[in-house]
Amino acid sequence: MEFTDKHVQGLKDLLYKMADDLLIIGHRNSEWTGLGPVLEEDIAFSSMAQDKVGQSLALYEILHQLGESDPDTVAFTRNAPQFHCSQLVELPIGEYDFSLVRHFFFDHAEAIRFDMLATTVVEPLQMVAKKFRGEIKYHTMHADIWMKQLGESEEAKMRMQNSINEVFPFALGMFEPSEFEAELIEAGIFDGEFALREKWLNKVVPLLESFGYTVPNAETIIPEFGGRKGQHTEHLQPLLDEMTEVFAIDPGAEW
Amino acid sequence: MNIVSIDPRVTRSHIDENTQEGIANPMEHFQTYEVFEQKKRGTHHIHVGSVHAPSAEMAMIFAKEQYSRRGQCVNLWVVKTADVFATEYEDSDIFDTISDKTYREPEAYKVIDRIQAFKERQKAN
């Protein structure tokens, strides 16, 4: 079918929120580099953070093909209100339990989103979704094994449970609907945030319960929305200032 | 008696040699796992190093990033280091080969000369 302006707008909105989520979580998680709980985990977590930034680049490149500015300009010259990331990804890294729980919730949502996009009518996006399948599978495997491991001792389990309770409303905020849901579904671009949220709940709730955790009731919790529309916590702008510090010294520099 | 160590910081700390302080327990110090990587289906797994981890599953996710991040890999094995039964270096003489038993090795047979001769003949024809 022919795309109308609304379809293209909806597609760009989808790409921006995915790319911004990946760039910001990648940057956040890279803050653990050198501070990880054990050397092996430090390397694994840092490597996954780099994967996220690489995945965001692939999506910014599709946006560039659709007429948006080049990836560097888009990534390094916008301010917080122009970012479409969910508030989940911009929160500070906290203690390791917090970062692990966020990693678990975020990466399962990403894995399912990419899985859904493996059949999108937008060919470059379909290719990107397939390209990163293995990478993302490892990320969810890593998250699952950590969640399981830390559910096995009392103190760790308590800390993880507290983080689950704290992170959950922000995790639900990932599925904030856009104004283009109907257009995206109609055109075969994406099945929409609601379908994604349902698939995600069906995945993460039984998994967490099998590890011995309690999951808050998604139906009674108020999600932390706003991020997709540029309303962010006070934590995003300082992150952007730090991330763009070198770029801002000489925006025209050749690297 | 206090512990005397080659590390002067330990000696200066005047630690009683019967102390129970600092005894490693499993939750404080991870055990190590040996990592074996397979480059291609059907080939041997090759030992590539070790990782610290509290369980085999954790060892596997660590090993993936430590050892197979770059380059080809289709399969990983992790094995508790403690489960590896090894020979002692002082027994390494068991591997010595006595020179007058070379008749038991294929090199002892002068096959290679005959192959060379055969190849020469082929060439000549």
Question: Which secondary structure elements does this structure contain, and how are they paired or packed?
Answer:
The complex is a heterodimer of chains A (255) and B (125).
Chain A: H1 5-30, H2 39-65, H3 71-76, H4 87-90, H5 96-117, H6 123-131, H7 133-150, H8 154-173, H9 181-186, H10 193-210, H11 236-243, H12 245-249
Helix pairs in contact in A: 1-2, 5-7, 5-8, 5-10
Chain B: H1 8-12, E1 31-38, E2 46-53, H2 56-67, E3 75-80, H3 111-124
Antiparallel strand pairs in B: 1-2, 1-3
Structural commentary:
The complex is a heterodimer of chains A (255) and B (125). With 255 residues, chain A is an all-alpha fold. Chain A has one domain (5-249): Ferritin, core subunit, four-helix bundle (Ferritin, Up-down Bundle). Helix content of chain A is 66%, strand content 0%. Chain A has twelve helices and no strands. The model of chain A has no long low-confidence stretch (mean pLDDT 96). In chain B, 25% of the residues lie in helices and 18% in strands. Chain B has a three-stranded antiparallel β-sheet, with helices on one face. Chains A and B meet through helix 2 and helix 7 of A and strand 2 and helix 2 of B.
The largest β sheet of chain B comes out as: 3 strands, antiparallel
Percent of residues in β-strands of chain A? under 5%
Distance between the termini of chain B: 87 Å
Structural class from helices and strands of chain A? Answer: mainly alpha
Order of helices and strands of chain B: HEEHEH
How many helices of chain B? The count is 3
Strand content of chain B: 15-25%
Q: SSE order of chain A in H/E notation?
A: HHHHHHHHHHHH
User: Largest sheet of chain B, order of strands side by side?
Assistant: 2-1-3
Q: Determine the mean pLDDT of chain B.
A: 85
- Overall domain count of chain B: 1
Count, helices of chain A? 12
Largest sheet of chain A: none
Residue-averaged pLDDT of chain A, rounded? 96
Alpha-beta content class of chain B:
alpha+beta
The tally of strands of chain B reads 3
Unreliable spans of chain A are none
